[in-house]
Amino acid sequence: MRKKFKLFFLFLAVLTMVFVLSPSVLEASGDGKLIEKYEELMNQKKQEKIEETDRVPTAIPPDSYEIDDDMGQAMSIDVNGASQSHNFHDESDIDWIKFPATAGDVISIETFDLGGSGDTAITLYNALGEEIEYNDDKYMLVSWQGDWDFSSRIIYVVNITGTYYVKIEPWSSWNTGYGSEYKVKVETVTLRTLTVNIKDEDTSSFIESPCEVILVEKIGSGFYLPSPNGWDWEDFCGYHFTDTGGTPFTVLDGGEYYIYVNYQGNDWLGNEYADEFYNNKADSSLADKITITGDTTIDILLGEGYFIKGYVKKESGEVLLNAWCDLFDAGGFYIGWWYTSKYDPQPGQFSFHILPSNYRLSADRAGYYWQFYDNKSMYETADVISVTNSDVNVDVILAPNPDFTDVPPSHWAYDYIEQIYDYGIVSGYGDGTYGPSNPLKRSQFTKIIVESMLSWGIIDSIDTYEPGTFSDVSSSYWAADYIMTAYNHGVVSGKGDGRFDPTGLARRSHIVKMVIEAFDILIIPYEPGTFSDVSPSYWAADYIMTAKENEIVSGYTEDNTFRPENNATRAQIAKVICNVLD
Question: How many other C-beta atoms lie within 10 A of the C-beta of residue 368?
Fold first, then answer.
């Protein structure tokens, strides 16, 4: 259960950081980056499902619609008619259907009733074979209860009268054979607009501050975020972000929805408004359903509530930074997240502004076991935090869970090493060790810095090495592409004689320069005396000063030295990378 929620929390964290911390990022980079991140997280969940079983797909008899393996063999399906039952009878099987549609129609293509191993993806094409829409998963689970739904749905407004084709395929070969059965239907639907206004409950004025507005459907005991059409932000996505006091959702006529608002304004100053469901309901177990019978407008009236505050701590009582805190309501709905940081008003303190009700709180941090408040491992047994008429203060204590045999929790760099391992920036030696005291070669640190740039979204991909860029780096060298990428982005320039010296050891001065260049940090001139062994004329003095002022490095406080010519260790590198990413 843990991992599926961590995926969703990370996804919403990405969304919020993109919109709140950098509103121009979405406009500059396009929706594709967020869609790719979402798909990456969902694919991770699917891969975990595969790895958790020892299932080997076994071929089964084909369904009655075979042969329908390409566009020319597509089987007709009646719009608003009976559904069809299909399967992926072997690892090479895909299915095609076709249907007529008239300009102006709104068509829904949906798979459902998937078998135990089922997972579909669907693509809509026009008669010319041009791709129109794609969807992998029509829902994302956002509550503790409920099951993952790997069915698919596309909603399409027809522009041109004609025949349309749908390719239906398994997500992977694991989703074929026994248990791959599914049904598919095509029907016309009516779209409506659900406008959500966010207002102050006392003044009725619009709240023009950042808010997450989450529209969900309830299926059984679970709440699901709809996501047809590959997360089409303008039309069919159940997640909107607004700072204008309102947002319109495109919904289905006859649909039943729940609306939750997570206020983001003044997050760092104390949360002016409490989060809530429509009609001033504290949690999903009490939430009012909105049934769509035409274009609909609702007002969400936000007011003050109470706070759940506290810290994530080690067993020693030390506050843990870079920890995820996740809050669930009495109905199991995911209320919100907090990422503890040194930049919090009270460093490391989480804070949730909510209405009186019962809640459950969990925390997670790289290098530590995930758990609920009061050392519970499951939602069902977790201690309830009751909020009635005052703020509640709680701490979540996490026990260490080391990933490397040579980096115990007592090691000074334990938290840094675990963090960059969790980011996927380093992987250790493959024998369970990390080698914290080992020096790094220039090629190794180049790889780490490029992976960090990828992790933070500074670059999109790794460049292919161009032969002759450096005289001592061949195209077949394991780090050639990383070196090329760093070179193209001005992070490295080589030794000045045409060489890169990939096996040379990275010095502390080198890594500081590379980090500052990689993350495009404004250079701060060196102040004499900052470190006793760094003079203003030293080639990396300004880089060292910049790193110190940005709290990326601190030097050796016992003698006020930086030791720029010393070789950097793998432990030191972990600290530097974590500090710059934070």
Answer: 22
